[in-house]
Every structure is written in structure tokens, then in C-alpha cells.
Specification:
Length: about 150
């Protein structure tokens, strides 16, 4: 069985929802929302007509969850539920919206060894540390008289 999920198009919105209380996150997840963002390339406030049935089903479950479980007094952080609801009301199906093909995401392999970005500050720190040690050593030798012939 294929489960339909709703993805946020805006990274800020998905980040804000991840920062909300666990109860609010669960209400959205139980309705079919993923807490990840997906850049679909579709303009705000429109969606493909083919998504209408799935969209209506997910929103119906979401509103039922909000009504039955309530969000009063829950921490929402930067997630603005009223703004989200206004967006849901504004959004309209538009013909000609091209839905991108979904590809399976494969994680990039972790680099073996150090990357240049991490290696450069380490090398600079090592060089500064070595310079300080040599400076202190020369000052010590100068103070003890061992440095002069």
C-alpha cells in the first residue's frame, strides 16, 4: 500500500514546525505531513489538480486531529498555525503546473579522511602553536644564556 505524504515547499516552514511542541508535530505527522521540505519548483498558493483528492484527505485528517486533540496552550515556536491555515485557504489548483518527478534520495557518502575545509584551520592552529612554542623556547634559552656563544 502506498502512503501519500505532504511535504512543505518552504524550508523555513518545515524548520518552524520541527521547532514546535511534540504534540503539534505529531498532529501534523499523523495527518500525513513529513517534517522535511521539498523544493518542487511550484509557485506558492497553487498545486496540481491531480493532487486535489490527496490534499483534501490529508487536510481533513489534519483538521480533525486539531479539533479532537487541540493545540491551545501548546508551544508553536516560529510556526504560525493561522498563517498556515490562511495559505491552505488561498491555495488553488492550477492546470499546467508541472509536477516534478520524484527520485529516490541517496545519501552522499562521507568523505574518507579530512576535507580541505576542516584541514586548513587545523593546519593554521598547528602552525601558530608551533610558533608560540619556538618563541617561548628561544626566550628561555636567551634568559639562561644558552643561546649566546
Amino acid at each position: 500500500m502506498v502512503r501519500t505524504v505532504a511535504l512543505f515547499r518552504d524550508v523555513k516552514t518545515s524548520d518552524a514546525l520541527r521547532g514546535a511542541s511534540p504534540k503539534i508535530r505529531k498532529i501534523f505527522q499523523d495527518a500525513g505531513f513529513e517534517l522535511a521540505a521539498h523544493d518542487s519548483g511550484i509557485a506558492p498558493d497553487v498545486y496540481p489538480p491531480a493532487d486535489q483528492v490527496d490534499r483534501d484527505q490529508i487536510l481533513q485528517v489534519l483538521f480533525a486531529n486539531i479539533k479532537s486533540q487541540g493545540v491551545q496552550g501548546e508551544y508553536s515556536g516560529e510556526f504560525d498555525l493561522l498563517q498556515f491555515m490562511a495559505h491552505v485557504k488561498r491555495a488553488r489548483p492550477v492546470q499546467g503546473v508541472v509536477q516534478p518527478t520524484l527520485t529516490a534520495l541517496t545519501p552522499e557518502p562521507m568523505p574518507v579522511g579530512r576535507t580541505k575545509r576542516r584541514a586548513l584551520p587545523g593546519r593554521i592552529g598547528f602552525a601558530l602553536g608551533l610558533a608560540v612554542i619556538l618563541f617561548v623556547l628561544f626566550k628561555f634559552l636567551e634568559a639562561t644564556g644558552a643561546a649566546t656563544p
